[in-house]
Specification:
Layout: H1 21-27, H2 34-50, E1 55-60, E2 65-66, E3 74-75, H3 82-93, E4 97-103, E5 125-128, E6 138-141, H4 143-162, E7 165-170, H5 173-188, E8 194-198, E9 205-206, E10 229-230, H6 235-242, E11 247-254, H7 260-271, E12 275-280, E13 287-293, E14 303-304, E15 321-326, E16 329-334, E17 338-344, H8 359-377
Parallel strand pairs: 1-4, 1-8, 4-7, 8-11, 11-12
Antiparallel strand pairs: 2-3, 5-6, 9-10, 12-13, 13-17, 14-16, 15-16
Helix pairs in contact: 2-5, 3-8
Bound molecules: ligand PAZ.
């Protein structure tokens, strides 16, 4: 939370307005530079589609909610972008082209190893006095760091040379939402070869354009109350309209571990995508849980109940179907059974490997396999 001390309170409204995805995009202004970013994504997806490469969109970092349109203050969250930046590296290693949609100034693939707070890059460097006639000292990497640096640098140079990493930044939740919707379109041309890996920590609340103060909020009142509205759940249109063929992975973060599995199941049931990765705030770097349906749907999972032939649910092995009402609309919904798989660093065999193993390596190994099956199921 990036609020100065003199702002005592921010209240989320108890009865917030409900923006549907549609009304959100009808009423909230698109960010500047949207078209240019989307053009870059389109060119990138086209290039890799033509050679049949798998492409993953990795979202990463937190989103801000500006309190003023000439923004001095904003609400923020804890996410540093470690999950997204680390995962992007392992996706590249696994042969994917990566669109890295990240919060500005959060961690980035490769450079994240030398973030200013954990491992400052300048500490690696040594000045060596010149022995040559020009008298210029040179800068070298201290020998004790080179063994670690070389593979990182090699992977970075490979991604640059091959053009397999495209980085697109956002800052506010509004920018994030517009970008996600716009990027889903060019990505839909990839069909099942496209994956969405939604690791960003997206704000659940926002201030609509008509509630945001234009200028810096003055502190002379001594208190500040804000009524915030709920951010629409864009996962549903992503899965059902914007990109129905993509393999879609969302993350669920909780601080009460008991909620992880029920909330992950509820998300699967509600949005109909392929996989939820649950993680506890404090254990997220060494333990996650994969929650998925036992029986993977082929095609969309929730189908509007419009006509008889519209039950385009699940292909050959359709499980029993129940009728439910969702957001005022009648839908068919399969009676679902779920499976959970815990991934824990403590259980990973080291096989003689030295050094740290990152949980993202294990996550991506599991995902590549599932994504291959998703692609194969359509053929
Ligand atoms: O960015 P980070 O590595 O510090 O944290 C990653 C994370 C916890 C934000 C991510 O794993 C996640 O759970 N994202 C989704 C959060 C949510 O909307 O529930």
């Amino acid at each position: 939370m990036s609020l100065p001390q003199h702002i005592p309170q921010v209240h989320a409204a108890s009865s917030s307005n409900q923006f549907s995805t549609e009304s959100y995009f009808q009423t909230q202004r698109p960010p500047t530079g949207l078209d240019e970013k989307v053009n870059r994504v389109t060119a990138f997806s086209d290039k890799w589609r033509q050679v049949g490469k798998k492409v993953v969109l990795v979202t990463s970092g937190g989103t801000t909610v500006p309190l003023e349109s000439n923004t001095v203050r904003f609400l923020d969250n804890f996410s540093a972008g470690t999950r997204g930046a680390t995962s992007a590296e392992y996706f590249l290693k696994a042969g994917y082209a990566v669109i890295f949609l990240h919060r500005l100034h959060s961690l980035r693939p490769f450079s994240r190893h030398y973030s200013h707070s954990l491992n400052p890059f300048l500490d690696l460097l040594t000045i060596t006095e010149s022995t040559s006639p020009d008298g210029q000292p040179s800068v070298t990497v201290d020998k004790k760091y080179t063994a670690t640096l070389i593979p990182i640098l090699q992977a970075y140079h490979t991604a640059r040379a091959q053009g397999t990493l495209l980085s697109i930044d956002f800052q506010t939740v509004n920018e994030y939402l517009w970008l996600l919707r716009a990027i889903a379109k060019p990505m839909s041309t990839l069909g099942r070869k496209g994956m969405f890996y939604l690791a960003a920590a997206v704000s659940d609340f926002f201030l609509p354009d008509d509630k945001v103060a234009e200028h810096k909020i003055q502190s002379n009142k001594g208190t500040l109350s804000l009524e915030m509205d709920q951010v629409p759940k864009v996962l549903r249109p992503l899965v059902q309209e914007w990109n129905p063929e993509g393999y879609i992975v969302s993350f669920k973060l909780e601080t009460d571990q008991a909620l992880l599995i029920p909330k992950s199941r509820a998300a699967l049931s509600r949005y109909g995508h392929q996989l939820v990765i649950g993680n506890d705030l404090h254990k997220r770097k060494y333990e996650v849980v994969f929650v998925e349906r036992k029986q993977q749907p082929i095609g969309g999972i929730l189908a509007p109940r419009k006509g008889k032939g519209d039950q385009r649910l699940l292909g050959a092995e359709t499980p029993p179907v129940a009728e439910i009402e969702l957001d005022g609309e009648k839908m068919f919904k399969p009676v679902e059974e779920y499976s959970e798989k815990w991934l824990r660093l403590a259980d990973v065999p080291r096989d003689g490997r030295e050094g740290e193993i990152e949980i993202e390596e294990v996550i991506i190994q599991e995902l590549v396999d599932r994504h291959e099956k998703w692609i194969a199921a359509a053929q």
